[in-house]
Structures are given as structure tokens and as C-alpha cells.
Amino acid sequence: MGCPLKSYLGQMWVRTQLKIGWWDLLAGAWNCFKSKDRETLRRGVESFFADNDDTIVAYSVRSGFDLLIQALELEPGYEVIFSALNVKGMVRVVRDAGLVPVPVDLDRRSMGPNLEKLQAAITPRSRVFVAAHLFGTRLDLDPLFEFCRNNGIIAVEDCAQAFNGKVYPGSLKADLNMFSFGPIKTSTALGGALIGVRDDSLRGRMRAIQATYPVQANAKHLKRIVQFMGLKLITSRLILGAIYKYYHSRGQDYEDALADRVRDVAPLKTAKNLASSLRPRCLPC
Predict the structure, then answer these.
(1) Do 44 and 229 touch, CB atoms closer than 8 A?
(2) Taking the C-alpha atoms of 260, 264, 269 and 272 in order, what is their torsion angle to the nearest 10 degrees?
(3) Whole-angstrom Cα distance, residue 134 to residue 106?
(4) 84 exposure class (CB count in 10 Å sphere: 0-12, 13-18, 19+)
(5) Which residues lie below 8 Å from residue 206, measured CB to CB, with a gap of 6+?
(6) Rounded CA gap, 83 and 104, in Å?
(7) Which is it for strands 79-83 and 55-58: parallel, antiparallel or unpaired?
């Protein structure tokens, strides 16, 4: 008779896989021991789409969005409109600033908001609109962004799930374009984000706020890389199969424990940890 575990592994589909190679992980670890000019690194990353100084590198998309909310200095009670399917961390940033998150329903045919639904959600207190591309697709959001601009509402394009290299640098109709390179992305750098900001004054205020943040230490980033090396090893078929059997024998779902380790860039359980989890500067010293 064959081995039951081996038979199971032949059919097993590993859902939580890191889209990063071992050579990239090793290169990241090696560079943690090398001293490099931080400003040169920052300029190099921020010029990925274009060398016109309109992009900010941030710790995560949520960190960049938090910079925006701080820079706008909105009065408590003003509204931030979200396309209804979004991550709770973005909503938490809004609530912690005393603002009101307002969902706009999705059109089931496109899985995105349409102009009619957005118009119905707008009130005199609406100040920001955030629309997210979902599941690797790109929605036609330009009419919505143009409507926002014409009505004095900041239009934010969340491209966290729509990165495709330099092919799509974001909509020109949006005020901000946000790209994520977190752990679960297909083009991951284990963290980091590029935030395109079209308005010079707004971008300057966001940069000034971020300049007050502590710089992420090389040792902290190295620890993160080592942790994800371990996760990459764990998600190999042989080891993950053994983990599955361990949790299954105890009546537990192994995916809950594993996915929680990979999914979130930063914990947002309390307002107290917001600053420490979302507000380091992205690049290590």
C-alpha cells in the first residue's frame, strides 16, 4: 500500500504561496548587511514609473493612505467614500482620524462602483473617494474620478491588486494612484508601496509628515525576510502536508493559522498601535 500522506500530497493545492523566489529573498537578506545611501535608493524606487518626482515610496498602501488623511487635515465627521469591497485596515485609518467611511455599492456585472451609485452616495460632507481594482482586473473608473474632481472630491485609485509592471502606472484622472508590494501580491517585495500624487502641494505635505517617521532598521527588515523564508519553506508540499495532518488531527483549519501570518502588513487591533505599525519610513537605513 502507498503512503497516505504521499497520496494526499499528489492532489494537494497550496493556496497560500509566496510569489517570490529564493534568489530574491537571499538578495534582500544580503543587502541588509550593506550600507547604501538611503536617498539614492528612495529616488531609484520612486522613479519606477517615471522620473518626475510625483511618487512617494511608503511602508504600505495603508501607510500611504494614512499620510493622505493626515495631510488633508479634514474635520471630524467628514466622509470618505469607499468602493464597497475593501480591506478593513483602510476603513480603520479613516475611523481613527474621526472621519466617516461610506460604502458605495458595487455593480455585480463589473464588481466595481458605477457613476450612478457614486452620485447617490455623495453628500455635502464627502471629501475623498477610494476605488479599488479587484482580483487582478482593471475597472474603467475614469468617469468616476472625473466626476469627483469636478465636485472637489479627492479621487484615490487603489491599484494594490492591479499591478502589471510599467504597463499601467495608474489613471491620469485620479488624484492618487496606490500600488502595493505586500506579501500576498504576485509581484511582492514583502512590503512597500508606491503612491503617485499629482498635486505638488499635497505631495509636499505628505512627504513632510513621512519625514518625521523613524527609519526602519536593517535588522527589522532582515528578520522579516527570514520569517518569510520560513513561510516559503513551510508552504512546500511535503512540509505543508505534515502541517495539514497535524491541524486536521486536532480538528483545526491549518489555513487560518498560516494565512494570518501572510495576509496583513501591520496589525490594526487598537488605535495605540496605529503609529508603530503603519508609520515607519519604508526603506531601511
Answers:
(1) no
(2) 140
(3) 11
(4) middle
(5) 56, 64, 67, 68, 70, 71, 195, 197
(6) 5
(7) unpaired
DSSP conformation class of 136: T
> Are the C-beta atoms of 81 and 102 separated by less than 8 Å?
yes
Could you give the CA distance from residue 203 to residue 24 in angstroms, rounded to a whole number?
Answer: 31
CB atoms within 10 A of CB 166: 9
Q: How many other C-beta atoms are found inside a 10 Å radius of the C-beta of residue 206?
A: 24
**Of residues 97, 151, 149, the one with CA closest to residue 124:** 151
In what helix (H) or strand (E) does residue 29 lie, and over which residues does it extend? Answer: helix 22-31
- Taking the whole predicted model, whether its pTM rises above 0.85 is answered as no
User: Cell 519553506 sits at which residue?
Assistant: 233
CA distances from 261 to 20, 51, 183, 205, 271 (A): 16, 35, 10, 33, 21
158 Cα distance to chain centroid? 8
> Amino acid letter at 40?
T
Q: Are 18 and 230 in contact (CB under 8 A)?
A: no
pLDDT in tens, the chain (285 residues): 455 544 444 445 566 677 888 999 999 899 888 877 888 888 888 888 888 889 999 999 999 999 999 999 999 999 999 987 777 888 999 999 999 999 988 777 767 788 888 888 899 999 999 998 877 678 788 999 999 999 999 999 998 777 878 888 888 999 999 998 888 787 888 889 999 999 999 999 999 999 999 888 888 889 989 988 988 887 777 777 787 788 778 777 766 666 665 555 555 554 445 555 666 666 655
Grid cell listed for 224:
522579516
Nearest to 180 by CA among 192, 166, 170, 196: 192
Tell how many helices (H) and how many strands (E) occur in the chain: 12, 7
Cell representation of residue 283? 526603506
Cell triple for residue 148? 469627483
